[in-house]
Amino acid sequence: MKIKEIIACLEVIAPPVYQESYDNAGLLTGDPEAEATGALFCLDSTEAVLDEAIAKRCNLVVAHHPIVFRGLKRLTGRNYVERVVIKAIQHGVAIYAIHTNLDNVYSQGVNSKIAEKLGLRDTRILSPRQVLKKLSAYVPPTHSETVRQALFAAGAGSLAQGDELSYATLGVGTAAGTPGAQVKLEVFFPLALEGAALRALRDSLPGQPFSYEIVSIENPDTRIGAGLIGQLPKAMSGKAFLRHLKESMQLSCVRHTQLLEKPIRTVALCGGAGGFLLSNALAQGAEVFVTADYKYHEFFDADGRIVIADIGHYESEQFTIELLYGIISQKFSNFAAYCTEVNTNPVHYYH
């Protein structure tokens, strides 16, 4: 099995098109055509993790955070980023990062893993993204059903409201001044499926004349976006929730704002730095917002309306390793996949 097959499996879950504009997710070093000898899953591809991969004879490291983020102008080994890249190249180790694209998916994403650990129910994306498009295809009436089914098979027409959704209008088109019947077939699809939808359209109309247009639409896709919000099975006091949070996420401590007098039932969360979602959490009635990387002055923004619980960046995403390992080991049961044994958290706590 080639490295590119492992990558393809991961990108079905979290297509690269869903990463943020500032991100650098994807294959950072290595040959995608190389045979995969094993994969090591981690949050950060540090030197210690790379040494572990080499010792375990893994030529693929799958990390959540991209080791190359701000760009490299030289490779001299002067810092840990350059040293990791040099060693990876020297030992033929591919490094693949699956970052904000994994943050932004609802199913099998970073935030759904946190929600699972906390036992949340009725979860949904906290801040859905506008990543839906609409394909309008003008096809012969005799082929409209064939085209429709081909588009459905490619994943188009599948929205949160249901599957195989489409709209058809019978009309008259002209070619060289000659009128003829045409069906305008319309389907919505997520941004990541644009290529698949177009291939399905072309392949279903061999030798037939057709035209199409694709437009972006304002409707948010409730399966793609930042953060998550859900309900606890039963309401609990602020102290009880913090204890539940600490135990469920295996935390040594929780930084938090003043607890509220009312019980906690609705929980908003975002793995990593999620302070930008506080207004979304408030607008949707969350009593607590679980995230990381809050600065001192930002805690004041809670203003007695919500509890901000900062659990640490590494801590909030630590189970992403388990998530990624599960995806690959389930798909390729005989493949040598490992969770790193290295704790890459650069933050230490003195108790």
Verbal overview:
The chain has 351 residues and is an alpha/beta fold. The protein folds into three domains: 3-98 and 319-339, NIF3 (NGG1p interacting factor 3)-like (Udp-n-acetylmuramoylalanyl-d-glutamate--2,6- Diaminopimelate Ligase, Chain: A, domain 1, 3-Layer(aba) Sandwich); 110-127 and 225-311, Udp-n-acetylmuramoylalanyl-d-glutamate--2,6- Diaminopimelate Ligase, Chain: A, domain 1, CATH 3.40.1390; 131-219, Alpha-Beta Plaits. The protein contains eleven helices and 15 strands. The chain has a six-stranded mixed sheet. Strands 1-4-3-2-15 form a five-stranded mixed sheet, sandwiched between helices. The protein has a four-stranded antiparallel sheet with strand order 7-8-6-9, with helices on one face. Strand 2, helix 2 (47-55) and strand 3 (60-65) form a beta-alpha-beta unit. Helix 6 packs antiparallel against helix 7. The protein is globular, with a radius of gyration of 24 Å. It starts with a helix and ends in a 12-residue tail after the last strand.
The gist of it:
This protein has 351 residues and is of the alpha/beta class. The protein is built from eleven helices and 15 strands.
Helices, by number, come to 11
> How far apart lie the N and C ends?
46 Å
Percent of residues in beta strands: 25-35%
- In terms of per-residue confidence, which ranges show pLDDT below 50 for 5 or more consecutive residues? none
For the biggest sheet, the summary is: 6 strands, mixed
Give the ordered list of helices and strands. HEEHEHEHHEEHEEHEEHEEHEEHHE
CATH homology group of the largest domain: NIF3 (NGG1p interacting factor 3)-like
Portion of residues in helices? 25-40%
Structural class designation: alpha/beta
The global form is globular
Strand order in the sheet with the most strands: 5-10-12-13-14-11
Average the pLDDT over all residues and give the rounded result.
94
Any guess at the CATH architecture of the largest domain?
3-Layer(aba) Sandwich
| CATH fold-type name of the largest domain | Udp-n-acetylmuramoylalanyl-d-glutamate--2,6- Diaminopimelate Ligase, Chain: A, domain 1
Task: Give the class-level CATH name of the largest domain.
Answer: Alpha Beta
Tally the structural domains.
3
